[in-house]
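explain this.
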Amino acid sequence: MSFLYDKAPLLILKSDFLVVFLCFSLQKKIDKYHVMKNINFQKLLTVAFVLMLTGISTRAFAQKEAFIDSQYILNNIPEYNDAQETLNSLSAKWQKEIAEKHQQVQQMVQKFQAESILLPADVRKSRQTEIEKANQEVTVLQKKYFGPDGELFKKRQELVGPIQEKVYNAIQTVANNENIDFVFDKASSPTLIYGNPKYDISDAVLDEVGKVMQTATPAQRK
């Protein structure tokens, strides 16, 4: 079953050369028209050449294209959903920890503001240093958990990375089997406004992924 429209490969077909051959054959039959011979011959060659180039040009740019919905594919892989739940749970846990630390800093600031007028200069300076240090600790904690190379990023790579690799391999397999030149991702492409469902190979990719890990059955997919 093909999910794509078929187009001819980049070849110069025998029919292209046949046109040229016929032109030469026809020319021999009009030898008696000596005056028009050269003109007719040139016209026939021109037409044949244009026809041949047109066929070559059309086939040269002929390509197969398809698209997928990566979010649909991932949502129908139980292991991915489990990974997302784990990541969401960790994210909520770390956000709570940061919020508690931030609240402690706020309490320190409020207490300092209420008491600063009565504090000796050295004590006031010491309290300000403590607040700055506590605030820096919150910033460091945020970076540790949610920074570009933070714990959440590393955990996502650990849990989701292998799944994404299997999906990518499946896309490659389906594309090779279907002779597809380009595969677009509907979920992440801002320019794909509409895609004909018959060119959507998402289910074929899910079937391929299902050979190496559990996926939702066609009836369970949503």
Observations:
- Confidence is low (pLDDT under 50) at residues 1-24, 32-37, 56-60.
- Residues 14-60 form one domain.
- The radius of gyration is 34 Å.
